[in-house]
């Protein structure tokens, strides 16, 4: 079958393209640009890619056209596919029809932690012999690819994105994922281009939990009243995980060492085992607790083998990913863009590298980060950094009355006692950060986009300094 994906370089779309190609389909795709890591992955997988959107890409009349949510009603290629009478669907509908209808979906949802927890769960099930299917919205370090079909009747691990499916299907993607085992991390107002207020955002999750059958399972953090209220609407078993003593599955930190975070895991107050997570940050330790509980309670895998497997988990590209070291300065890449994620990322890296300066470089590029919705929260989110650089808003088309005021954010950080600068361009940031960095410092670049290739530019400048 010839399947064409419009907006193929998105994380979910790209992974689906790879999976379809692996199964023997002819796969083509189009997008505005093909930035790494997904762009280079598409090339490696042998996907036929077209830059830009053009009805001519449909000349061979594909058997199925998957239209990504990057497309708007005026997208000429998407419009042509519909007008030509071709079979078309959203990404979410394609995933359901092709892979979830005859498998047991394990859906990881929530404002933060989805990609890392999804990759972690897929890794744990793979390493303990369960041969899961999975679709990860990122490039995992330890799995051959970010996708696998799995077997009918078996577990299929997928990231439960609450963003809408397509311009012609204005419902959250995860409503179509038929969850049997689900996890919800924090629920904090996000995607404000889709959800104008917290009530609308909350409603998406409220309906999601009603989709879990009575025989299913829902895992929730033990310290979130917001998620607890949503979970009260579920008809299935609800299990709480986290750091609190009353958590059903409790993780007890035992300290960070050079090889990662050590911890003890308890279920129902009984010690289940000792573990080690190579990743930094309390948020990642919480992610691990959720993934371990999903694998044990949802698939019946013993904690002993799960904890052993976890110790070799290498993470996901663009999630606290060390891009390189030059002149003794470490340069990390992270996808963080919501203020809570920014704060957690910085705290995790501060814990891993307590010596030297921690320099944060932030590009407000997502639909939420580009707006003033969380402007005050950003002022406090950079507290763990010794120095902060904020780039111009990545969506200048947003009206100035709604657009994030980066100068005000920088001033707010300084009011909180920090050092912050609002830069006019990437080149200024590279010049200033490279000039001020010394051996032992850590730089973390946070953006959900390519950010002008700043990582390599900074490493090159540091190397020549």
What keyword list fits this structure?
6-stranded mixed sheet; Protein-Tyrosine Phosphatase, Chain A; 465 residues; alpha/beta; Rossmann fold; UDP-N-acetylmuramoyl-L-alanine:D-glutamate ligase
Explain this structure.
This protein has 465 residues and is α/β, with parallel strands linked by helices. The chain folds into three domains: 2-86, NAD(P)-binding Rossmann-like Domain (Rossmann fold), CATH 3.40.50.720; 94-310, Mur-like, catalytic domain (UDP-N-acetylmuramoyl-L-alanine:D-glutamate ligase, 3-Layer(aba) Sandwich), CATH 3.40.1190.10; 321-464, Mur ligase, C-terminal domain (Protein-Tyrosine Phosphatase, Chain A, Alpha-Beta Complex). The protein is built from 14 helices and 23 strands. The chain has helices at 11-22, 38-45, 76-83, 91-100, 114-127, 198-210, 225-231, 282-299, 303-310, 339-352, 375-381, 406-415, 426-436, 454-464; strands spanning 2-6, 26-31, 48-51, 64-67, 88-90, 104-109, 133-135, 147-148, 155-160, 164-166, 169-172, 181-184, 217-221, 237-242, 249-257, 260-267, 270-277, 321-326, 329-334, 358-362, 387-390, 420-422, 442-446. It has a ten-stranded mixed beta sheet with strand order 8-7-9-6-12-13-14-15-16-17, sandwiched between helices. A six-stranded mixed beta sheet has the order 18-19-23-20-21-22, with helices on both faces. A five-stranded parallel beta sheet has the order 3-2-1-4-5, with helices on both faces. The chain is globular and about 55 Å long. It starts with a strand and ends with a helix. The relative contact order is 0.09. The model has no long low-confidence stretch (mean pLDDT 91).
């Amino acid at each position: 079958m010839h399947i064409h994906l419009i907006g193929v370089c998105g994380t979910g779309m790209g992974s689906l393209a790879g999976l379809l190609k692996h199964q023997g389909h002819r796969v083509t795709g189009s997008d505005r640009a093909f930035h790494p890591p997904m762009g280079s992955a598409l090339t490696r997988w042998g996907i036929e890619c077209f830059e830009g959107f053009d009805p001519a890409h449909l000349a061979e009349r594909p058997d199925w056209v998957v239209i990504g949510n990057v497309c708007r009603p005026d997208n000429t290629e998407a419009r042509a596919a519909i007008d030509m009478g071709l079979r078309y669907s959203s990404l979410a509908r394609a995933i359901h029809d092709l892979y979830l209808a005859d498998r047991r979906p394990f859906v990881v949802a929530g404002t933060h932690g989805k990609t890392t927890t999804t990759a972690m769960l897929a890794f744990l099930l793979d390493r303990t012999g369960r041969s899961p299917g999975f679709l990860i919205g990122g490039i995992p370090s330890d799995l051959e690819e970010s996708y696998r079909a799995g077997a009918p009747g078996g577990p299929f691990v997928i990231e439960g994105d609450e963003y809408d499916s397509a311009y012609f299907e204005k419902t959250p993607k995860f409503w179509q994922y038929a969850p049997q085992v689900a996890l919800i991390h924090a629920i904090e107002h996000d995607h404000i281009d889709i959800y104008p207020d917290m009530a609308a955002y909350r409603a998406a999750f409220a309906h999601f939990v009603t989709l879990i059958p009575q025989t299913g399972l829902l895992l929730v953090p033990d310290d979130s009243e917001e998620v607890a209220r949503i979970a009260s609407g579920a008809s299935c078993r609800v299990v709480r995980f986290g750091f609190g003593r009353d958590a059903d599955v409790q993780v007890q930190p035992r300290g960070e060492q050079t090889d990662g975070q050590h911890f003890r895991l308890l279920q129902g107050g009984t010690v289940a085992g000792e573990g080690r997570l190579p990743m930094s940050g309390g948020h990642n330790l919480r992610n691990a607790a959720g993934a371990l509980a999903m694998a044990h309670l949802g698939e019946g895998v013993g904690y002993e083998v799960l904890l052993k497997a976890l110790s070799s988990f290498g993470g996901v590209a663009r999630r606290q990913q060390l891009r390189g070291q030059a002149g003794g300065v470490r340069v990390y890449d992270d996808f963080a863009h919501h203020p809570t994620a920014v704060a957690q990322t910085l705290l995790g890296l501060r814990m891993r590298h307590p010596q030297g300066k921690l320099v944060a470089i932030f590009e407000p590029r997502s639909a939420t980060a580009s707006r003033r919705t969380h402007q005050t929260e950003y002022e406090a989110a950079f507290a763990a950094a010794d120095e902060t650089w904020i780039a111009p808003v990545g969506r200048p088309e947003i009206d100035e009355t709604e657009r994030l005021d980066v100068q005000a954010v920088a001033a707010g950080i300084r009011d909180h006692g920090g050092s912050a600068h609002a830069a006019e361009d990437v080149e200024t940031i590279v010049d200033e950060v490279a000039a001020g960095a010394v051996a032992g410092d850590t730089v973390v670049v946070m953006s959900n986009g390519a950010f002008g290739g700043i990582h390599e530019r900074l490493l090159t400048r540091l190397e020549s300094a």
